[in-house]
Amino acid sequence: MHLRTSLRVLALAVLTVAPVFAQQTKAKPAAAPAAAAPAADAPAAAPAAQPIASQAVPAQRDELTPEQKASMKEADRMRGEKARIDAELALAEAKRAEELAPLNAEVARLTTERALRLAKASAEAAALEDERAKLERQAALETARSTARLAERSNKIRELEAEAKQLQLEAANTVARLSNEIQRFQKEDEARKIASKAKPKYLKDPLVDGVLYISDRRISFNGAVTEQLADYVCTRIAFYNNQSSEFPIFIVVDNSPGGSVTAGYQIQKAMAASKAPVHVVVKGFAASMTAVICTLAERSYCYPNTILLHHQASNVVRGNMTVLKEQIDFTNQWFDRLATPVAKKMGISLEEFVKQMYANDSTGDWQAFGDKAKELKWVDNVIERIEETAILDLLPVPAAPTATPLPLPQPPTRTEISGVTSRVDDKGRPYFELPALANPFDAWWLYDPQGLYRAR
Is residue 42 part of a domain? Predict the structure, then answer.
């Protein structure tokens, strides 16, 4: 406010002084000659008496022509007009400044307010950004936790589904096995009703005059020795013992190439633990693990042309040299434990037993017909005739105890009881697929020169 007032006063002073200044400018040329006189006596003051070059001109104004005087007068008038215009401009500038002052103040105020609002908005935006980042982190963490919980629940569901399928399979297997047993007993009962005059012969000594009489205490033993077959045989040995421990139990082998050492060992121990005597009857051939079971039975029988075969244990192993050596050493231990009793029954050492294997056959597969097998003490009795007194009707062959929960297109054929699957390879050649060895310490002891049996 003080600035505006000062500017107004200054402008008015300029307007007031301008005409006076113009008149003084006109009067000065007349006094110039008087001032010029002392200039000669005081040369040092000459510069101060002539501030501008035009001051010498008025001294000679009277000597000028009228045109020059008119020009001088016009110049004085223009200088006065210029002073007036400058004063008016100064006044107008002062008025403009006075008018712009509130606007400038308002602009400054608005600029300040805008800066404050921008600062406040920036602070709020920063706070919102921090909150958003925090929420995003929380959402990501919660998503990760939800994903982990979902994965855990999915794994649990899969485990429960697998367990349920396993239980269903086991239940189906149990139901199928029990159904087969029930059907078999029903058929046998129906057969007995049909053939009422025929009855199984139960003899403590079943070999009479060279004829072997087999009762219905009979266990079929065919195909490869597997865990399924071992379970089938051991369960029936226990069943017939609970039925009666007085009469013998017959394990009837049509053809068997041997198989799993642990499964064969289980059968052998079940035979040894049986209160009722367990007799092994071989009709076709028994090789490898099955030959060991026959040789170590309490009593064994075969036809003269039945073939028994003993050889060293073998295995299909894979891995580096150290793994191969370990597997071979472990298989040798199995062979030593199972073949030593056979060699002892023959009256020779295990080393001599192995030596004679290769002396009789370059492959080490020592085979012998029934009469020769009796001389070697691999079998106890060679017979000419067998009477199956329990065969009262054409009973259907019992189905395999295992069951497949889901139907398969062209389901593979399984051999009786043992669980071995009959298949055809991509070249059209048939073969038998052995079930996987569930026991990690198990090994196959099986005679298969034609490569018909293949491990899964």
Answer: no
Is residue 171 included in any domain, yes or no? no
**Same-domain pairing of 200 and 111:** no
Q: Where does residue 111 fall: left (phi above 0), alpha (psi -120 to 50 degrees), or beta otherwise?
A: alpha
Look up residue 398 and give its DSSP letter: P
Of 121, 150, 172, the domain-final residue = 121
pLDDT above 80 for 368: yes
Both structure tokens of 85: 């215009």
pTM above 0.70, yes or no: no
The reply to whether 77 and 207 lie within a common domain is: no
Report the range out of 39-48, 65-74, 164-173, 264-273 with the highest average pLDDT.
264-273
Listed residue (207, 216, 294, 292) closest to 253, CA to CA: 294
In which domain, by residue range, is 248 found?
195-403+411-455
Q: Is residue 43 a part of any domain in this protein?
A: no
Q: Are 251 and 102 contained in the same domain? A: no
Q: Which pLDDT score is estimated for 401?
A: 43
Residue ending a domain, among 121, 150, 169, is 121
CB-based contacts of 424, cutoff 8 Å, min separation 6: 430, 431
| Total domains in the fold of the chain | 2
Q: Would you state the pLDDT for residue 448?
A: 83
Q: Which tokens is 251 given?
A: 């394990």
Separation of alpha carbons 358 and 257, rounded Å? 19
Give ∠ CA 298-419-398 in degrees, rounded to 5: 80
Indicate the DSSP class of residue 245. Answer: S
At position 109, the amino acid (one-letter code) is R
318 lies in the same domain as 217: yes
Residues 238, 266: Cα–Cα separation, whole Å: 13
The C-alpha atoms of residue 309 and residue 11 are separated, in whole angstroms, by 141
Confidence (pLDDT) at 319: 64
DSSP sequence for 309-337: EE--------S-HHHHHHHHHHHHHHHHH
Please check whether residue 300 is in contact with residue 283, taking contact to mean a CB–CB distance below 8 angstroms.
no
Residue 186 has pLDDT above 80, yes or no: no
Residues 204 and 112 in one domain: no
CATH number at residue 445: 3.90.226.10
Contacts 24+ apart (CB under 8 A), 6-14: 7/90, 7/93, 7/94, 7/97, 7/98, 8/91, 8/94, 8/98, 10/90, 10/94, 11/87, 11/90, 11/91, 11/94, 12/91, 14/83, 14/86, 14/87, 14/90, 14/91
Q: Locate the DSSP E strands across 257-357.
A: 258-260, 278-287, 299-302, 307-310
- Which whole number is the average pLDDT over 358-372? 93
Helix, strand or coil, per DSSP, at residue 308: strand
Q: Please name the amino acid found at residue 325.
A: K
| Phi, psi dihedral angles at 197 (to 5 degrees) | -85, -20
* Same domain flag for 87 and 214: no
